[in-house]
Amino acid sequence: MSQPQKGVCAEPNLHAQYLSLNVVDDESDAIKEKLARVMDIFDHYENEHFEAMVTGMVAVGAGYWTELYPGPIPEGLAPFPQMQCEDRSAPNTPTDLFIQIRADRLDICHAIGIEIMALLHLHVELVDQTRGFRYLDGRDLNGYIYGADNPRGMKRRQVAVVQAQEPDFVGGSYIHIQRYRHDLRRWMSLSQRQQEQVMGLTREHNLPSPEQSSSSHCVRAAASGAQNDLPSMVKQGMPYGDMNEQGLFFISCAASAQPFKAMLHSQIYGNSEGDYDRWLDFTSAQTGGAYFAPSVTFIRSMGERIT
Ligand code: HEM
Predict the structure, then answer these.
(1) Which candidate, 15, 51, 261, 265, has a CA 20 to 30 Å from the CA of 79?
(2) Which spans in 161-274 are helix H?
(3) pLDDT tens track for 50-64
């Protein structure tokens, strides 16, 4: 059985460290071997500091996959679906690797990050490092409980992990990331009622709001989403920020790359009446990347073939 990486289906944590890296040499054999060792680093911290609930994930960028792992390519792995309409945009800012480190202890996240960078530093440049944190009772900085519709238990696996439909990649997951920057000053200037119109949900409990419309975030995002009563992605994103800049580091893990693209399209371009996602008037994507997070089994076996 191919074991998915823990970060794909993980339960929420208190802290996150996100690393986006570009590989600067062509030593792909060394990278394969070192990515297998990153799995060992995650295991080590998971065992030594079990109370910290460490979960990790390494994902390989759409543009780097064939160089790293020549041979079969995950069917849906394609460059990030860049989109632009009026002042709403989803840029494509690809990197070769994306690493998600999560734990309930900030020091452990930091220690794992340092160890991974020490292992990889000869081969990579760090393009982006962002620290995520749990905010209040699992809310986005806009005040809404985030990820409330994530499936629970084994259903998470069903939604986020590739099954028999792609035999070479069972246990893997399609990853899309976007770092959103919120204009919270503008958002906070809205009344609660106006915010509920924008999100389409009540702020306290995420219940459908009487003010919901076809431009509400939850309506636009769901327009091309769920099948069989299950959502089509597991949301693993978390809030990030400091006193100058804040937002959500959006991460979607899914068994197929299609639903993310369809949802983003529905949000940015809207329906035929021009109803786009009004939440995008208050936040904007600064980055965007498409990756595949292979199973632990895959990463280890590819790493071992060299040594
Ligand atoms: C800054 C960015 C975003 C924020 C703060 C945000 C926030 C939220 C919140 C608070 C909810 C309701 C609770 C929940 O189920 O999570 C929600 C629902 C949802 N969001 Fe987002 N979201 C963001 C971006 C996106 C993006 C980029 C996508 C997909 C491309 C997306 C897809 C969805 C979906 C599918 C739902 C569930 C809709 C339903 O069936 O009711 N969101 N979002």
Answers:
(1) 15
(2) 184-188, 192-199, 217-222, 258-269
(3) 999 999 999 999 999
